[in-house]
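Let us begin with a simple case.
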Amino acid sequence: MSAVPVVVPTWQWSQDVLDYAARHHVAGYLDPLLQATRSLFPTARDLRVVLEADPGIPECWYVAFEVDVPRSDIPDYIQAQHNWNDELYRICPAVLARPFVITLTPLDS
């Protein structure tokens, strides 16, 4: 019996995220950050990357990586966010990292 290859759908960036990233000269960091996010949260139930307005500063926008992960897979929520930020700063120079944020949503299993 031959193994059936697993087909992983190609990631599609939304046009608003691509446009924003291009305007802010950070488009080259999108794919590496996506890869890092997937590596840090391999059990994620859902992963979205959206352009999100800052609720307190209307003219401020972010590229938000929204990750839904089973609560049991995030024993330390704060450390998980720190780990993602460490990857962000490893991938992207600090001066360009401001547009990127993560939102982790722990899910009950």
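The second case is a distinct protein. As before, the sequence precedes its structure tokens.
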Amino acid sequence: MRIEKYNAARLGEFLDSEEYRTMPFIPVSPHRALSWLHNPRLDPGDVIMYLGYEQENMVAYRCIMPDRRDDIRFGWLSGIWVHPEYRRKGYASRLIKEARADWGQKLMVTDYAPEAKKLLDKSNQFELYSQSTGIRYYHRSTAANLLENRGKIYRRFRPLLKVADGMLNRVQDVRINFKKQDLKGIELQESQVMDHEAADFLEREGDTGFCIRSQEDFNWIVAYPWIKEGLFKDQRYFFSAYAPVFRNIILKIRSTGGEMTGLIWMVINGEKMTLPYAALSEGINHDISLILNHYINKYKISHLTAYHSGIIDLYKPSGILGSRKMTRNYLATGELLKKLPDQGKVNFQDGDGDVVFV
């Protein structure tokens, strides 16, 4: 396998090339690539994409998102694909080996698929650094979408599943609306940027996360999303690039006197909601339930996933169908582990790593 490596300059040239426009499979969407190129933590020489070729055909790719903690630079493993005809032949392992060498053996990964975990274990280079426990709350039924890729039998019955979802959700909407409470007396301020006040509040509350992201970092994430709102789908790309609804909502919570008492960053991606960053002062209590339930009802969210302990302790969902515990592991190479602080001394936010984009 011939491996081609791309830093920022070469990636820009690649996106403008005839090869990118005509290749049957693409390793990155145009807007995700644009986000990579505007990453404040990117250095010009960083290798951020590896393409594997057999003859003139691209058969595998591996992507890296540059990051740092204080003065420790490292890369997040962020997306891998191997053509079905070339799987289980060592292509993915070869790309990881190249990335480890280029990044000085300093790599991290989180929120990986089970197949990726087998590959990481096989490399004998990644160890568990930290683990977060969370909860996924199911508010509405989406069985038709969840089971669509489970096999032919599920696809055959998808129309019936959609009808069942619709019937169940009509009942669920009535149930939720019956319990709905207004936000009277709660002062909220929505924004699509992280301004000085919000960034300072996160820093003051000690909730800038493991990556210690700055205001510039936060606004890069908002300005250059990996997912855009729309129904278009490029069949050549195998990762999420569009969603019917996509919103970044940075929500300030204020006391009756106008003082900022909380911040919740909500990402609405289709029918799901995540909370990549949150910081809460003491005394908010039931306000969190009212606020989250309001937005869940407004955007007809099917499920909310949260790992932030403060959110989980305070949130009382209204009329959910069920919930389940979630676990998110953060793996790091041995060389990086030697440089990172003891995991008990760091605080991971839900958006640390590349998961803030998805």
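The CA atoms of residues 271 and 301 lie 5 Å apart. Residues 158-179 form the longest helix (22 residues).
Keep these points in mind for the review questions at the end of the chapter.
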